[in-house]
Specification:
It is a single chain. The chain is of the alpha/beta class. It is built from four helices and eight strands. The strands form two sheets. The protein has a six-stranded mixed beta sheet with strand order 2-5-1-6-7-8, with helices on both faces. Strands 3-4 form a two-stranded antiparallel sheet. The longest helix has 10 residues.
Length: about 150
């Protein structure tokens, strides 16, 4: 999808979907991994698995779909947003990886947010320079602050 492809990853509730929605609203090409690529499957075989979550069933992305989207260079840049347990099998396809972390204040608020307007504040840190989190060829990048208000 992009000449440059970026992965926005992070723990549950870190704001991956919120960031993706905002980037899309601002005109960037995005892929919502949880909606477009993910399914419950066997981590070792990649086959879809029905039933309860256990060692044989986990949240994974369709690797061939990821490869096909990355190979399509019709846009200048594409941001893939979401998490999966098989990221190590396709992370090298990305030019850079951003990992969202929840700051300590908001971490303590998860699950107790009042109804109405909630201010979510997320800090995006560069992924550690390891084979499983960031491609070796990815350049260094600055910390970004992202704030939004949701109803």
């Amino acid at each position: 999808m992009g000449v440059k492809n970026y992965l926005i990853d992070g723990v549950s509730c870190a704001g991956k979907t919120t960031v993706c929605d905002e980037m899309q609203r601002r005109g960037y090409q995005v892929v919502h991994g949880d909606k477009e690529l993910a399914y419950w499957g066997n981590l070792h075989t990649g086959q879809a698995v029905e039933g309860n979550a256990d060692e044989a069933r986990t949240w994974i992305w369709d690797i061939e779909k990821v490869r096909a989207l990355v190979a399509d260079h019709s846009d200048a840049a594409t941001f893939f947003c979401g998490g999966s347990r098989n990221t190590d099998r396709f992370i090298s396809l990305f030019d850079a990886v951003f990992v969202l972390e929840i700051d300590s204040v908001h971490h303590s608020m998860i699950g107790i947010w009042p109804s109405g307007i909630v201010t979510e504040r997320f800090v995006i840190f560069p992924a550690p320079n390891t084979a499983c989190r960031r491609p070796a060829e990815a350049g260094r990048f600055s910390i970004l602050n992202f704030s939004c208000e949701t109803a």
